[in-house]
Design a protein that fits this description.
It is a single chain. The chain is of the alpha+beta class and 494 residues long. It is built from 12 helices and 19 strands. It has 3 domains: 109 residues, OB fold (Dihydrolipoamide Acetyltransferase, E2P), CATH 2.40.50.100; 75 residues, E3-binding domain (Dihydrolipoamide Transferase, Irregular), CATH 4.10.320.10; 221 residues, Chloramphenicol Acetyltransferase (2-Layer Sandwich), CATH 3.30.559.10. Strand 18 and strand 19 form a beta hairpin. It is elongated. About 26% of the residues have low confidence.
Length: 494
């Protein structure tokens, strides 16, 4: 029998994912839980295991395609007695009719109905969100007509030209409307009854809103006129007819053909970049940011690093200024817990965390990500160094999981690796503070009443002023700076 695997909810509340690559091809035999594809959500790259054991019958989507959750991506040919992978809810999945029953039965099953017409449960992988009960095709909204028009009448504007009354056709001729494929297409695009919203899905409506597209002007090519992502994108690319400005569309296309495209490069906003942009806008315009700076003589910390690298305990362990700074941050947070909190506007509460999930901003080929070390405050310096190395390697390989990116309580960004001295970092949404580390530079500095060449670094602390007062932020930053300037001071803080 043939079974379809629909793109699951990856547990992040996301509505779509991009197919990065297929690990299998048509005709391949796969086993249960074998990795068959890599998909990219807005946060991470995720490997999809097979929910069935069988033969790949069809790949419905190609690499690079952005697929909405719930749409079929691959079909399997499995034995008649093969069951689906266990679902989180534990309910068995109804079987799909075999190929011999025809396309109509298969379509009914894909729509979420059994042969009896009742809703059924789709196979769902463990850890991939709750099973969604399909309720079948949603009922269309009733059309509304002007008060003077009977309910069973069909407006002339929505009737095919061949069936319109003669007076309607003559009126068009009188107005000088030419019957061309372009304006017929535009008329079809505007063939939307008054008071009825164009048919589309929530992700498509959000895409149209983000791009500034009026869905009433877009022609739907999906089932029963459903507007798809491709319809919106084609409209933006000028591939949809525009009855009002056909000349302008043609001129735009001519400009592109004349070499205009060589002067600019357009990249689709998706994946990590899309998520990062939305998160930064939300943070910047939700949390009132305040930023403070502190320049510190970190020569003692650099000397400590050199000694630790030569010690037996740290043999083979990668130690960097980030390692010591992270440890200093974890110690300072014990004295300034306000910087390890969250603003819960819905419940009108301030949530103070009694643990630290320390986020570390990482620049990766996929864009900026901020994975966090769970319970970092419980790690020794050796464990912290090893965890930071593993985090960086995982991020560079693009293997950071959604779980690693969720639940952070405070973050650090190391801009010094790019040769930058200071900046005004934007808070990770839901966190109260973020610390930016500048480059360590040798500079003339006052030392024991004289001028000496010392190793100096600037710390930049941004915090949510709803949660953190200036005094609290200043004391925290001073504590971190004091530890880096004289690591022995830790004995007075713990």
């Amino acid at each position: 029998m043939i079974k379809e695997f629909r793109l699951p909810d990856l547990g992040e509340g996301l509505t779509e994912s991009e197919i990065l690559s297929w690990k299998v091809g048509v005709g391949d035999t796969v086993s249960l839980n074998q990795v068959i594809a890599e998909v990219e959500t807005a946060k991470a790259v995720v490997e999809l295991p097979s929910p069935f054991a069988g033969v790949i019958k069809e790949l419905h989507e190609q690499p690079g395609a952005v697929v909405e959750v719930g749409k079929p991506i691959v079909s399997f040919e499995v034995a008649d007695d093969a069951g689906p992978a266990p679902s989180r809810a534990g309910g068995p999945a109804a079987s799909v009719k075999d190929e011999g029953k025809g396309v109509e039965d298969a379509a009914g099953q894909a729509a979420g109905e059994s042969s009896a017409g009742t809703p059924r449960r789709e196979p769902n992988l463990v850890g991939y969100g709750a099973v969604v009960e399909s309720t079948g095709r949603p009922a269309r909204r009733p059309r509304t007509f002007p008060a003077h028009m009977p309910a069973d009448a069909t407006p002339a504007a929505t009737m095919p030209a061949a069936h319109r009354p003669a007076d309607t056709m003559s009126a068009e001729t009188t107005r000088g409307v030419a019957k061309t494929p372009a304006n017929e297409h535009a008329a079809a695009a505007s063939d939307q009854p008054a008071g009825e919203r164009p048919r589309s899905t929530p992700p498509v409506r959000k895409l149209a809103k983000d791009l500034g597209v009026d869905l009433a002007r877009v022609t739907g090519t999906g089932p029963q006129g459903l507007i798809t992502r491709e319809d919106v994108q084609h409209f933006m690319d000028g591939q949809s007819s525009d009855a009002e400005w056909p000349g302008a569309v043609a001129a735009d296309r001519a400009g592109v053909q004349a070499g205009q495209s060589a002067r600019e490069t357009r990249t689709a906003i998706k994946g990590v970049r899309k998520f990062t942009a939305a998160a930064m806008v939300q943070s910047a315009f939700t949390a009132p940011h305040a930023t403070e700076f502190l320049t510190v003589d970190v020569t003692p910390s650099m000397e400590l690093l050199a000694r630790l690298r030569d010690s037996r305990e740290f043999a083979g362990v990668k130690l960097t200024p980030l390692t010591l700074t992270a440890k200093a941050v974890l110690i300072a947070l014990r004295r300034s817990p306000a910087l390890n909190s969250r603003w819960d506007g819905e419940n009108q509460e301030i949530v103070t965390f009694n643990y630290v999930n320390l986020g570390i901003a990482a620049a990766t080929p996929r864009g900026l990500t901020v994975p966090n070390l769970k319970d970092a405050d419980s790690l020794s310096l050796v464990q912290l160094a090893e965890a930071l190395s593993a985090l960086a390697e995982t991020a560079r390989a693009g293997k950071t999981t959604p779980a690693d990116l969720a639940g952070g309580t405070m973050s650090i960004t190391n801009i010094g690796v790019f040769g930058i001295d200071a900046g005004t970092p934007i808070l990770n949404p839901g966190e109260a503070a973020i610390l930016a580390l500048g480059a360590v530079r040798k500079m003339p500095w006052e030392y024991r009443g004289d001028i000496a060449l010392r190793q100096v670094m600037t710390l930049s602390l941004s915090f949510d002023h709803r949660l953190v007062d200036g005094e609290q932020g200043s004391r925290f930053l001073a504590d971190v700076g004091a530890i880096l300037a004289d690591p022995g001071l830790v004995l007075t803080m713990v």
